Protein 1
Amino acid sequence: MKVVGPEEKVKITLKVNGNVHEVEVEPRRLLVHVLRDLGYKSVRVGCDTSHCGACTVMLNGRSVKSCTVLAVEADGAEILTLEGLTKDGKLHPIQEAFTEHHALQCGYCTSGMIIQAYWLLNENANPSEEEIREGISGNLCRCTGYQNIVTAIKAAAQKMRA
Amino acid sequence: MYVGQKVRRKEDYRILTGNARYVDDIDLPNQLFLAIERSEVPHARIKRIDYSDALKLKGVKGVIVGLNLPLEGRPRNFPMAKDEILYVGQPIAAVLAEDRYLAYDALDYITVEYEELPAVVDPEEALKDEVKAVEGRSNIAYAQTYKGCDPEEALRKSDRTVEVKLEISRVAPSAMEPRGGIVEYNGNRLTVYASTQSPHYMRSFLLKAFGDRVSDIRVVMADVGGAFGSKLFPYPEEFIAVHAALTYRTSVKWANTRREDFLSTYHARGQTHNVKVGFNKDGRVNAVIDDLIIDLGAGWHGTYLADIAATLVTGPYDIPNALVNVKGVLTNKTPLDQYRGAGRPEAAFVYERYMDVIADELKMDPIEVRKRNLIRNLPYKNPLGIKYDSGNYLALLEKAEKVYRDFERRAEELRKQGRRVGAGLSFYVEQNNFGPWESAIVRLLSNGRVQVVIGAAPHGQGTATGIAQVVADELGISLDDVDVVWGDTALISNAFGTYGSRSLTLAGNAAILAARRLKENIMKLASGFMRSDVQELMYKDGKVINPKTNQVMTLREVAEKATRNLGGVWRYRAEPLLEASASFGFDNYTFPYGSHVALIEVTEEGKVRVLDYYAIDDIGVVVNPMLAEGQVHGGTIQSFGEAVLEEVIYDKNGVPLTQGFAEYAIPTAVESFNMKWEYMEEGKSDAPLPAKGIGEGATIGGPPAIIRALEKAVGKRLTRLPVRMEDLA
């Protein structure tokens, strides 16, 4: 076990959207804050209690709330944030479906919501409405009332299966 | 024509790709982070604040205490408690440190010695004025009477009377982005990056407080992660951050945690109505008398919310006699201000509850009772002086009634299977387009693109897309050639912002007027280029045409010609003024109306499940049905939260028990439901763009329909917002 003294930092490596970052962090520093410091601003803080999901990222293939992960726990991990979803300026089918079905308003929850949808559709290529609602229940949206988000995820699933 | 079409949002791409920038996403060089020490007790006298240990910490640059600034509607202890703590969450001290973590660490090294005072928590207790809540003032901070005709006499003469006490709890607006801000220090000129609904109003109130210390403050609205009314009016943190930047001569950022947001962002609603209604056996209502108490918390800037609720107490019904006695009381709670709907949901809950109560008392059909009282001729002046403008209330009610009858039939069938299911309908009239006016500038850029600057400050509604549609139509050009920008006091001189369902209507009409002026400028300029008299020319589809000579100039050609020849001399017959501005306002408010219909089940475990839901609105011309429907979806789910899930709760000592999303449940996708929305376009305003606004309608129409459906499901009268589990047993 490594013992880290007060004010001492730990060197970690994160692979974010394919970019490798070596950073020195305090052990208490949350992954969400480290990602934001690295410039991945789509990862946002909406609560302090892992209820809202605005900070959702993919970590080694699983969706996690990065406000509930210490950066040191993510040492060596591969992370995907919303910034990594667009390839060569082309929107991912989930992003495309979100704008087509007006599934975003203020946009604050959108990055976490899309990443969660990405994970959901990785797990289940053809989810029912109930499975979608259950699947995004850890991501709060105050603007849309979710109806269009559910529609968009359904539409994206269909497109991605085709 | 783009108006009336479901056009995709222009705002989306940058959000979808992670390029949006909310305030906490912005960082400035040499920025210090400001963290706020907040009160943990509701009412106390401060004896001593010791922050010497905090200053010893590495990375801590300063501590601010005792900052008091005068501001209308606020106590003396604003923006900080200097000698008296007034509510849990009130700022007492602020730490400036090099890093967010360090700043919050330092708060643990501040000691506040205080002597606790008894807290005033219950608004009805506050009314007795025995224990004072705020700085020894009378608890009764506001009293107002609204009276029309002779309600006492009309009540006496009625066949029947009924009395009901309606309680509307406090709610927390809970935008997903907590409040925050950055002050950029540039000597005596500051730039404030803000999460706000009104950069111009923020500039005004900050200049009023700091005008002797700065020459100007530019306010730039960052992307705003939801507001719902809660980011319109001034907050203590904004003053503390500006003071800190000026004192320490450096840029300062602050960003609330969610817990801080629950404690400090103004709560809303918080009204109790004791209503007496006099009516005849045929269901006609003669008089309404309402004793309204509003729980203002530790400030008195929210009194207008009671005024709005009071003056709409007769709703869409032709009730000739009304009396409302408003009392605004101070309590040791977070100050109260607006939240989506702002007074109108409270009014609708009252008038729609008493309509249903009367129906039940008379064993009449609730739609029939409404029809007997519904206003048939518009315009109509209600007994408290509010003038409703236009529409056909009966036609809308009859459309909603068809859905209601179907829901009722389905409820009946399910009840026969032993399930607890009910149907409810509400009808509402809304007052909106709170003014006084809004501004816009329309510009033709050198490459022929059109830029519209609006004074409104949208933050998710999609107003930029709506206004682009309106301007593209007015100029007869492609929507792709119009960009709408906003949110910076340096972009447009004077403006108001986004609140009260006003932006598309007021800023949209201002943009139309400005576009018309721009066309005139372009015609004059083109007449020189085309060597024609301006009278010979016509404007059509983005082109200036001389029908006699068949000469044509596109907007792009005019713009290019007017902006080229760098280094040349002035050779224009008319001034090459490629922009125009305008302001627009109404001499009255606008009054959309609508109806919500709900089919709801209360399960055996006491859970509320919405089985079906329908809403219909008449907001005049609907510019973009996709955007309008989005507002209805979101507003309806918020109103479901308000009716069933959300309540700010204080214990009897004044400690808030709802300090996070664990205790204060906003709807998730699981409790939420799908709905169907329709619209009518009969109730137009008389503006060039005869639209009225849809931002708040659903939070007004939702709660009474939901509560009625629940009432029918469980078979007992419900009088509270939100309903509690025990009410549904």
Note: Chain A is about 30% helix and 15% strand.
Protein 2
Amino acid sequence: MRTIWAIVGVIIVAALAASFYLGGGPRRPDVVVGPSSLAGAPAASFDIARADGSPDALARYRGKIVLVNLWATWCPPCREEMPALETLYRAHVAQGFVVLGIDQGESAKVAADYAHARGVTFPILIDDQQQYGRAYAAEGLPTSVLVDRTGHIIKGVDGEMSLDAMQALVTPVLKSQ
Amino acid sequence: MKTRFPGIVTELVACILVIAQIVVPGDALFHTWQYALALAVVAWLLIANISRSRRALFGISLFGALIVIADGFASGLLGPDTDRLARAPGTVAPIPDIGAAAFFSSATPQTLTKGDGVITIRRRNHSDVLVTSGARKFLGASLLTAVSMPVAYVEAFDEAGNHLTVTQPTGAAFLSPFLLFRTRQEIAGGTHPIDGFALPGGNRTVKVVYFTPQDVVRLHMAMPPSAAGQPAILYDVFDAGSNHSLGIGVAASGVQAEIGGVRLDATLGTYPQLVIASAPHPYVLMLGLVLIVVGIAGSFLEPDDGAMRESKRHEEQHGDGEHGVGA
């Protein structure tokens, strides 16, 4: 009987000791979620207004390849990227491609005046509640998200892209879909 | 009954110790060595009772309590620490420990004041689990609860009335006008939720402090009569370049304040924060509890094995004696 008690005691002590080394402690740290982690997910869409006041939303562009570009006029890299986005849009608009410039948190007039002065022809949307910025896990501006014809995210990109980088991202998708 | 009483008390203590993890989920006590030691002592007592038990069914009851203890031990000391996920409305947070993702529902200033935010837990090949404030949901050996926390939706305008982008470079979401007040600071004899945001378009940074309606009264903060019973927010506006304070002001929820060249408007309300605590696995716990109840109930109907054995031995000894005399 004493042997059984000794075994039980050793098991309990061993379990206690093992718990200090094997288990417990903090949970695994949060996985950092940026726009690059969104590939394959359905693209969130919110009803917002265009700079001219007409209603619009990403969901209205189902059937097209869409490059969502989150931007603001105060953001220098966004301003530098704008001409390349316009060039890309004009080059592929006939193939069912569209650039959606979604201004984050600014007044429609500010965004519209800026876009008009730079000859931007792609749609400019005003997201005053910054819903797209949150849903696309933007870690800064600009943030770009490429959405396929079925409304799923192909790739999310944090930061400014050159025209070459944009072409490399969009052209294969336009050829395959 | 007399012989079972110590065992029943030990079982009761075991159940209280383990079910406490569900009643008070996330308490740090459950991850301490003292708690584990208490479980170990109770386990030892249960084993001692099993060896002394005269009834087989009462032994099953004690075994059920051991299962409960093992379940509590696994979730207590072996389980990961409690985690709190505070995220902005409309965002997603992965929870690698349970192989799930938490979707924080979208919110508007109107829904914030109602405090009816919902967190949806999604796992591959499982149905969605909705966690609302005050609710408790088991997910394997994790207990998910949602706790309402103060939150503010801020809007900012420049002097010309142009809407300004709100960013939170150190917040849970960079492009979010929702302040989650994840830290607290001692101010005027009390600790208050604090947060901050930037207005890059207006070249300003803003620190904010949240005051509950009780704080507003206690600190004798001057508020318009229409704001009676409302929480309030204190703004400290800085120049983003020089980091010099440009002004401090207090405003009630929904009331615009003009400070340091910007107009600020905050709607104060509540939004759930997800608390993930290790908990005893419900199926294992149920099994243990069922064995305890069935074992105790059955032991009252069962004859006392030990007493029968004693009586039989006594009869045998008595009989042997008679034979001996006869022989």
Note: The CA atoms of residues 64 and 289 of chain B lie 6 Å apart.
